Input
Amino acid sequence: MTGAEGVGWCGVVGLPEFGVVAAVGMGADPERLLLVDEPGGRWPDVVAALVEAVDLVLLRLPERPPSTAVRRLSALARKHGCVLTLTGAYARDWPGTRLRLRMDDAAWEGLGDGHGVLRGRRVRVTAEGRDAPGRGRQAFVWLPGPDGKVAPVETASRRPVLEVLPGSGSVRGAWNGGGEGAA
Output
């Protein structure tokens, strides 16, 4: 994890399959990753200790979170300026979540019909919640891209899309899906 002052610390709890090599490939410093594979029944205490010490905690909840744990950990995260990120089956059961990220519309690039080499994976990320304006925001990103890094997918060309209307002899143009004009 890279912060404004340099490199920050990150705790990962309840994810024994966490991809350290992949995280390093995306810029994480392995010497600043604290991994707790199986926190057991005292997971709220483990997370509380990390929230007080690191900039980011990634937590896969092992169970539906008790309201006392939610209040305690949310307050600690606010107090210490830590980002508490939840994943897994019980993440939606955490009340008061300010922002939810959903990933869908994934497609691998580079493979043809039984041939080729995987170059990257393009996905749509949707941000929803109190901190996402309006009905949320969407963006296509590479996870990972052809260079192995996370990056936004380049936006469509600024050239107009032209369409020939049959039988009319005219052409209609649209700029990136917005508006129409005669050409």
